[in-house]
Amino acid sequence: MQRQAFTGIELGPVGYMPEEPAILAEALSEFDQELIGGVIFRAFHDPDAWDDVLDGSIRTCKALAAHGATRLVIIDSISPRRAPTAGRAAEAEQMDTAEWEVFRNRIATIAKIGTEEYGLSVGIHAHAAGFIDFEPELERLLDEVVKNTWHLL
């Protein structure tokens, strides 16, 4: 019986795989893999982490574009404010209006960079202990970013 092999792989967090396009191309070729997408798993919720979020996002987009990958997934990383109540919506701390607007705008900015500057299809991943942990948060984000902010999708 012949086993079906995987032929596509995602980039992983920035730094997990080589960022130099030629080195990564060689590694992908060695294992007969195609880079199909990647994730940005950063603290979008942390106002002090914006430089890190932006840096990791740009580096990820560049690596994906260099290898013809088409998919980018944004994930808000684990927040110390939300970790104690992960998975329990009724108990989870919520952002105030000002925090949410900044958070939403960071995500919209990275999504816009991914689509407009790198030609990527951008998605969002709800993650436990981040500020997009529960369905109402995800729906609100998608409604505000996609329908009201962009008018692109």
Describe this structure in words.
The chain has a single domain, classed as TIM Barrel (Alpha-Beta Barrel). 42% of the residues lie in helices and 15% in strands. The chain has 4 helices and 4 strands; from the N terminus they run βαβαβαβα. It has helices spanning 21-30, 50-66, 97-117, 135-150; strands at residues 8-10, 34-42, 71-76, 121-125. The chain is elongated, with a radius of gyration of 17 Å.
| Tally of strands | 4
How far the N terminus sits from the C terminus, by CA atoms, comes to 43 Å
The unreliable regions are: none
Q: How much beta, percentage-wise?
A: 15-25%
**Structural class assignment:** alpha/beta
**In the CATH classification, which architecture applies?**
Alpha-Beta Barrel
Topology:
Elements: E1 8-10, H1 21-30, E2 34-42, H2 50-66, E3 71-76, H3 97-117, E4 121-125, H4 135-150
Parallel strand pairs: 1-2, 2-3, 3-4
Helix pairs in contact: 2-3, 3-4
Annotation keywords:
153 residues; alpha/beta; TIM Barrel; four-stranded parallel sheet; 4 helices; 15% strand
Quick synopsis:
This protein is of the alpha/beta class and 153 residues long. 42% of the residues lie in helices and 15% in strands. It is elongated, with a radius of gyration of 17 Å.
